[in-house]
Amino acid sequence: MIPMTHFLVLGAILFLIGAAGVLMRRNAIIILLSIELMLNAVNVTFVGFSRHLADMTGQVFGIFVITVAACEAAVGLAILIALNRDRTMVNVDEVNLLKW
Amino acid sequence: MASSLFFYFLAVVTTVGAIAVVAFPSPLYSVLALILTFLGLAGLYLSLHAQFVAIVQVIIYASAIMMLFLFVVMLINLGREEKRELRLPGQKLLGAIAGLAVFSMLLKVFLSTSLMTGKKGSFPPERVSELGNTQIIGNLLLTDYVLPFQAMGVLLFVGIVGAVVLARRRSR
């Protein structure tokens, strides 16, 4: 049996890598991927606690997190496609006008 | 022994994949590295006896969502991210130091708190393997968590409509 702390540390590592990706990269697709990474880090913690506490709620919430991630990916990619149609780039620091 | 080797192998695979997602210059390789990370996470869920979440992770996450990402990457055809001057000198170093600071803080909290070991929930491993993981999740979704479940349905619907509205070609 792996100690619970190992799963928490793995979740923390994945979350921080994702956060670093959001902060350091300029490409909007990689920022979206990093957000997915952070959501998955939370999922590792949820499922780990579900096993540790012998309670299935963590796994049910893992399913909910996956659903939210699917919606977020669909809407985020739609925004990217709309942006790319008006101006051919996806770098977030060049998108600085609220209307065009 | 075997299970801890399995854990460390998968932990290394997921971490390397996650670093590759952030480090690759081309988004296409980042997406492929993220698929590797998600498959490793599915293995971890299996080792935690969360079979349903593991299968959902493989089918929905690593396949469907990542296929959407790959499709968009190939559709809008971006090249590599060009190098540009960073606004702040030593920005990457500062970012790494801040990340390590947060990580050490989390580590200290994890190691110093006791993780609620006294009170256990109502689904110990023997009961889960007797009733079946998927059956329990299905029952919980339609009894205790029926309201969040319905809200998920509304959220998915709004997500579909929003994606179509946003990505639609505007008639001028």
Describe this protein's structure.
- The complex is a heterodimer of chains A (100) and B (172).
- In chain A, 76% of the residues lie in helices and 0% in strands.
- With 100 residues, chain A is mostly helical.
- The radius of gyration of chain A is 17 Å and the shape is elongated.
- The longest helix of chain B has 26 residues, at 51-76.
- Chain B has a single domain (2-78, 124-171), classed as NADH-ubiquinone/plastoquinone oxidoreductase chain 6, subunit NuoJ (Four Helix Bundle (Hemerythrin (Met), subunit A), Up-down Bundle).
- Chain B is built from seven helices and no strands.
- In chain B, 76% of the residues lie in helices and 0% in strands.
- In chain B, helix 1 (2-23) runs antiparallel to helix 2 and helix 2 (27-47) runs antiparallel to helix 3 (51-76).
- Classes of the chains: A mainly alpha (100), B mainly alpha (172).
- At the A-B interface, helix 1, helix 2 and helix 3 of A face helix 1, helix 2, helix 3, helix 4 and helix 6 of B.
Describe the structure in brief.
The complex is a heterodimer of chains A (100) and B (172). Chain A is mainly alpha-helical.
Q: What's the helical proportion of residues of chain A?
A: over 70%
Mass-distribution shape of chain B: globular
Tell me the greatest interface.
A-B, 69 and 81 residues
How many distinct folded domains of chain B? Answer: 1
Q: What is the rounded Rg of chain A?
A: 17 Å
Sheet-strand content of chain A, in percent, reads under 5%
Mean pLDDT of chain A: 86
Poorly predicted runs of chain B: none
Report the total helices of chain A. 3
- The end-to-end span of chain B amounts to 65 Å
How would a crystallographer describe the biggest sheet of chain B? none
Q: Quick check: average pLDDT of chain B?
A: 86
CATH topology of chain B: Four Helix Bundle (Hemerythrin (Met), subunit A)
